[in-house]
Amino acid sequence: MSYVEEIYERVTLQNPGEPEFHQAAKEVLDSLKLVIDANEEKYRSAGLLERFVEPERIISFRVPWMDDQGKVHVNKGYRVQFNSSIGPYKGGLRFHPSVNQSVLKFLGFEQVLKNSLTGLPMGGGKGGSNFDPKGKSDAEVMRFCQSFMTELYRHVGANVDVPAGDIGVGGREVGYLFGQYKRITGLYEGVLTGKGLTFGGSLARTEATGYGLVYMLEEMLKHHGKELEGKTVLVSGSGNVAIYAAQKAQSLGAKVVAMSDSNGYVYDKDGIKLDIMKEIKEVRRGRVKDYADQVPGAVYTEGKGIWTIPCDIALPCATQNELNLEDAKTLKSNGCFAVAEGANMPSTREATDFFVENGILFMPGKAANAGGVAVSGLEQSQNSLRLSWTFEEVDGRLKGIMADIYAKAADAAERYGVKGNYVAGANIAGFEKVATAMMSQGIV
Ligand code: NDP
């Protein structure tokens, strides 16, 4: 059995009941096989892969909070501190009913490689809770966030672990978490990113993941003699990543004709009017269905199905495993030629393989959505410098970082004889830096 196969078997045996973590580990390990085979003796004797797939630490805790009626609820809270070989842990917090240890381990594992790709000194982590902020009042969300941070504060810090937002954690939640950290510790430091602009947040952080995704898409298209202008685009989701991906794509001349949420999707053949969508999602915290009620000609469909709409380019920006093999085949037969992942692991393994094997230009999430964490890294830099850079400065650096990630993934794929396979390229490029750091730091 090869070293990679041995490690995958170990992952499944030692982490029972964690399908998302198994899926992420398999995808990464499979594409690292070429690198591992080339260094097998060295890595085996250092137990490198055994350490690479095992989080340094998982913190799990109780989060009690009181609703507006005075009833007490208890949620689960977690922080997975996966790997700190190239910098302090860094990665988002997710508040969603589907959160469990498996989901956070998959996200933390991916984060290690993603953060490495950005070129910034950030290790990988992820955390969150099975709390659902949807339908809760601001006061309830505040009490929950305060309770969550009352435990988490012991484990984080500007030079230790710097969480950020993710699904269900936006500016409001980060604000409440930051306030409670400061209150307990007395420290005014960059312990979280995605903060408000009046208290240490970075310009362009809100837009960063979506914009970065489209910069990466443009880069990939350019290298294949294609362009975004005039193309029809589908964007799944309607949260932070989806909205700013749609905005940047439209500003570069593409037409985004559909967006979705977990209830259904809306199709607007004239192109989604983002001012209306943003008002619904960001101000009213409403549903995409409201868009069809408001915009004549727009059609709302309940349930899944966004990938059945004909398009040139698909940008899955909602959640893991939202695009399966059937969807991938439908996209191709409808003429879709490029897919870039705004969400983390939105395509199933079968769908990913189909894209790669059928000549669809495919950029995986760990490269395509790294703009968010990259600008979080820039927020940390600004906090340390006690400075604020302009929007243009941050956006310019973001663009440079995305181009650099593209170059690294393309180069690694080419070096290992799988030119154009950005799944392998991104995994290899991210891994090489982490592996070198781990090998240099002894057995830790
Ligand atoms: P948001 O909470 O802002 O938005 C999430 C969107 O996805 C919402 O429209 C939501 O719909 C939809 N969604 C969530 N769960 C499901 C589901 N099970 N089925 C269908 N739709 C669903 O999160 P973000 O935009 O921040 O995150 C989206 C993805 O991007 C995640 O995979 C995240 O990990 C990834 N990502 C985010 C980064 C960031 O900077 N925010 C950085 C890198 C990656 P509904 O309102 O109905 O729940």
Q: Structural class from helices and strands?
A: alpha/beta
CATH class category of the largest domain? Alpha Beta
Largest sheet: 7 strands, mixed
Q: CATH homologous superfamily of the largest domain, by name?
A: NAD(P)-binding Rossmann-like Domain
Q: Using the alpha-carbon principal axes, give the shape.
A: globular
Bound molecules: NADPH dihydro-nicotinamide-adenine-dinucleotide phosphate
Q: Please, what is the average pLDDT?
A: 97
- Helix-strand topology string: HHHHEEEHEHEHHEHEEHHEEHEHEHHHH
CATH architecture of the largest domain: 3-Layer(aba) Sandwich
According to DSSP, the number of beta strands is 12
Task: Briefly note the CATH topology name of the largest domain.
Answer: Rossmann fold
